[in-house]
């Protein structure tokens, strides 16, 4: 119970700090002129900047977590998250916003790596997927409030008021950091030394393809899909969508769709994680989930009745929940058995950040060059690549490594 309580606490802290960032993904593609931007390409840069800054800094932050208390890193993250969230409504300049997005990237690195390491520290093989699902599900509520409430609130009160409110909410999470986040340093080595792998993890095919899968899924969902959903709705339907007597803007509908996903994550992600814990071949489960997501993405730009298209988007959001839970659980499973498990988990965050940072810029470049449908066809192709390789067993090399010591002993 204590392990679940600590994981739940850091998940809620993460959720609160995500409010401003989640709001920006829905609001910025529609209201970019209102906050001082002069062209659409600046939207892609701003949505990528926070991830680009994390690429060189993630290894440093992983090293810091091995030499300082977890609580210190999370407190720093909360303070930076609060400051940057408030700045979104006050900056009024592309260059100031670019700086703030970079600072938010540092905050998110401390938050996310702290969450992953907490799960890896407290979980075991029997509950790793369930606890990772709990963490992802609760932290996703930040997306629920940020995207849904944020999109409507910006239309009603303006981005300045909403940014200040979300920033103050992050400040209010500080007492919970002090109460629930561990004041000790992260344990760098596996709890069970008998499961430890020898040699460099970067030479193992399973580790390398875990990193590649994280990169591609982050590029597709965190980068391309999240940053262009409101743009897709605007192109596929119009700026305003009518439901009988109710009229919604593209940004508001995108916020609703993203918030629906965040709304079911707290109870659905642990169920998916529990199923993953009991899977005999986790990589095959991952392959199936990725292929189904690729099929749905490829169908997204196809003309069809609005109700059917809306149902397709909801199915895709359901699949995104499964992908995020399964990929993160698979990453912690692979990392937890490695000698340098903090280094491997840090490598995973670097890979996902690289994919997520490329995603928005790649998406808007494709949009300008070949039209909005090309974004989703390209995204589907990336997932197919990852799924095909994950469907191939990785058991050969580890089996040889296990037999070799016994043979030498005889």
How does this structure look, described?
By secondary structure, the chain is mostly helical. It has 17 helices and 2 strands. A hairpin with a 2-residue loop joins β1 and β2. α5 packs antiparallel against α6. It starts with a helix and ends with a helix.
Strand order of the largest sheet: 1-2
Q: What Rg do the Cα atoms give?
A: 21 Å
**H/E element sequence:** HHHHHHHHHHHEEHHHHHH
Poorly predicted runs are: 191-196, 395-410
User: What share of residues are in beta strands?
Assistant: under 5%
**DSSP strand count:** 2
Give the proportion of residues in helices: over 70%
Sketch the major β-sheet. Answer: 2 strands, antiparallel
- What's the total helix number? 17
Give the distance, in angstroms, between the N- and C-terminal Cα atoms. Answer: 44 Å
Structural class determined from secondary elements: mainly alpha
Shape: globular
Mean pLDDT: 79
Ordered list of secondary-structure elements with their pairings:
Layout: H1 2-17, H2 19-31, H3 41-52, H4 54-67, H5 70-87, H6 94-122, H7 128-139, H8 141-157, H9 159-171, H10 174-180, H11 205-236, E1 240-243, E2 246-249, H12 250-277, H13 282-299, H14 306-336, H15 341-370, H16 372-390, H17 396-409
Antiparallel strand pairs: 1-2
Helix pairs in contact: 1-6, 1-7, 1-10, 2-8, 2-11, 2-12, 3-6, 3-15, 4-6, 4-15, 5-6, 5-9, 6-7, 6-15, 7-12, 7-14, 8-9, 8-12, 11-12, 11-14, 11-15, 11-16, 12-14, 13-14, 13-16, 14-15, 15-16
